């Protein structure tokens, strides 16, 4: 029976951990916002909290846009480690900032690092997977996001008013993981050349990578559809994870119950990712994404109805998590099937970067609804509409005919690693 080679095992572990950081980070901020507002930390207002969340996501978007071409040119390994280092350091110092502007600056720079983690990690996992398992490799990697989100929600419940400890823990964890990446993470990019874990340099590239290649006639329709789908998907992910506790508090639930709902939402997401990737690889990534976005629209609209029964509410939130978050990840899976091998990291980076615009719009628009006092129920109407638009965007993308991400045996053989 086939087993994972040592190098592939470390790829799975370390790329998964890299994605954990993103889920932890966004939920750490979202779960801390009610406490920050109640305590008026450094004089923070709701508009200040919205500003901090927005500039953080601007940094993430810029980081994602920059990392794709860099990763195609220099390989996956070093850009991923640099991203983790920047994110970890500026997450650690975030609670120490003395005013709103400095808090925003720390979040902006942390976002630059965070933005590089996800696209490189997902691309690396796809390159190390079998040709017919890229969707599952993507969703498996992205379970890390929601494990991180669950950890942050638990941390917020335990920390209570001592919110800085959530950020100290996240930053310290990144610094602990970094030496493991240096020692154990191999290079998977054939363009950069095989590199053993611990090597200092990737082999030089001989072919110039042009970012505009993803916009040529062959891929234009695919690129636009995936960009819009990613925009809507990340609008949902970040809008919900940033503001769900406050939305539910506005609906009349207490803070503890709101944090529990955030936890339940992300537990549902983990289950959905484990199911959705396998379904997409077997039945087709496009059809699966259409079903997942459509179900998301229905469930989000249902959350606009006030539910007195806590068990029923938890069940609806759980199922919502199953569909909403996997919808976004299926867009990343689509990238692995849609672009040729030489530009797949650029394709992933730009899809992630454009998606980050949705990640900015989601918390910003929802924050305005909170300020205006109409976030419940109109926030859920807004989210349901976004899911419908995501469905339409996926419908416009041509069905993938083939995928050109190389089989993992190629880089394993080149670097001396074999599956048994």
Automatic annotation (TrEMBL):
Domain annotation Major facilitator superfamily (MFS) profile: ranges: 11-402
Matches recorded under CDD domains: MFS_PcaK_like (cd17365)
Signal peptide location: none
One Pfam family cited in the UniProt record for this chain: MFS_1
Alphabetically ordered keywords of this record: Membrane, Transmembrane, Transmembrane helix
Compartments where located: Cell membrane
The protein, known as: Aromatic acid/H+ symport family MFS transporter
Native source species: Arthrobacter hankyongi
């Amino acid at each position: 029976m086939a087993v994972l080679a040592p190098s592939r095992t470390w790829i799975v572990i370390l790329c998964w951990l890299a994605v954990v950081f993103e889920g932890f980070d966004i939920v750490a901020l979202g779960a801390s916002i009610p406490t920050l507002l109640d305590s008026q930390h450094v004089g923070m207002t709701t508009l200040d909290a919205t500003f901090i969340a927005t500039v953080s996501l601007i940094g993430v978007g810029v980081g994602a846009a920059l990392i794709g071409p860099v990763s195609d040119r220099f390989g996956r390994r070093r850009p991923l480690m640099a991203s983790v280092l920047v994110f970890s350091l500026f997450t650690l110092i975030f609670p120490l900032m003395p005013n709103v502007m400095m808090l925003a600056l720390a979040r902006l720079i942390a976002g630059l690092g965070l933005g590089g983690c996800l696209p490189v990690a997902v691309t690396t996992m796809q390159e190390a997977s079998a040709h017919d398992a890229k969707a599952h490799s993507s969703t498996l990697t992205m379970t890390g996001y929601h494990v991180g989100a669950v950890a942050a929600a638990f941390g917020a419940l335990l920390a209570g008013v001592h919110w800085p400890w959530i950020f100290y823990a996240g930053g310290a964890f990144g610094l602990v993981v970094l030496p493991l990446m240096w020692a154990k993470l191999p290079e998977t990019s054939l363009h950069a050349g095989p590199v053993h874990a611990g090597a200092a340099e990737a082999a030089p590239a001989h072919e110039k990578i042009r970012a505009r290649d993803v916009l040529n006639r062959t891929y234009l329709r695919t690129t636009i559809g995936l960009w819009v789908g990613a925009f809507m998907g990340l609008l949902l992910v970040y809008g919900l994870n940033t503001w769900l506790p406050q939305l539910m508090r506005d609906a009349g639930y207490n803070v503890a119950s709101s944090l529990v709902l955030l936890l339940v939402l992300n537990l549902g997401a983990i289950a959905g990712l484990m199911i959705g990737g396998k379904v997409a690889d077997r039945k087709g990534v496009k059809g699966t994404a259409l079903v997942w976005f459509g179900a998301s629209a229905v469930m989000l609209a249902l959350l606009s109805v006030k539910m007195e029964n806590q068990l029923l509410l938890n069940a609806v939130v759980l199922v919502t998590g199953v569909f909403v978050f996997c919808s976004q990840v299926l867009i990343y899976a689509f990238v692995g099937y849609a672009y040729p091998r030489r530009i797949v990291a650029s394709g992933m980076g730009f899809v992630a970067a454009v998606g980050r615009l949705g990640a900015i719009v989601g918390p910003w628009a929802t924050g305005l609804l909170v300020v205006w006092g109409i976030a419940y129920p109109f926030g859920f109407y807004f989210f349901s509409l976004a899911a419908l638009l995501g469905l339409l965007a996926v419908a416009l993308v041509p069905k993938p005919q083939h995928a050109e991400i190389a089989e993992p045996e190629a880089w394993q053989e080149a670097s001396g690693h074999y599956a048994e």
